[in-house]
Specification:
The chain has 124 residues and is mostly beta strands. It has a single domain, classed as Cathepsin D, subunit A, domain 1. The chain is 0% helix and 52% strand. The protein contains no helices and 11 strands. An 8-stranded mixed beta sheet has the order 2-3-4-9-5-8-7-6, with no helix packed on it. Strand 6 (50-57) and strand 7 form a beta hairpin. The chain is globular and about 40 Å long.
Length: 124
Amino acid sequence: MELDGYFNASGEPAIQLDLGFGQAEILIDTGFAGWLIVPSGFAIDLSNAFEGFESFLTATGQTFAAVVYFVEIDWFNERIEVPVAVSQQITEALLGGQMLSDCLLSIDYYDRTVKIVHRTSQSN
């Protein structure tokens, strides 16, 4: 199963994900080790989903804390529950390495293509 992404207007690799309120652009950030982090302005249904707090390290070496919620998202045509951090410290939603743990990520800057292939435990 695969998910096709794109390069946004700023030239950043991105995908569209349903975070429970409709489709949203999520940047692919291989330097971010978490699952998902979104700006506090995202309209996600967070009722009864509070998990706790988590600290994050930015690319510039700064640390910030974010509230973490468990949210159901569409991931390869399946509804799954993942931890989503919400922070005022970021301006764009980011998909991190934890979301890609069972995937092959292909970002082709020359042909301007982005593809995520989900590898299940049954496939070789």
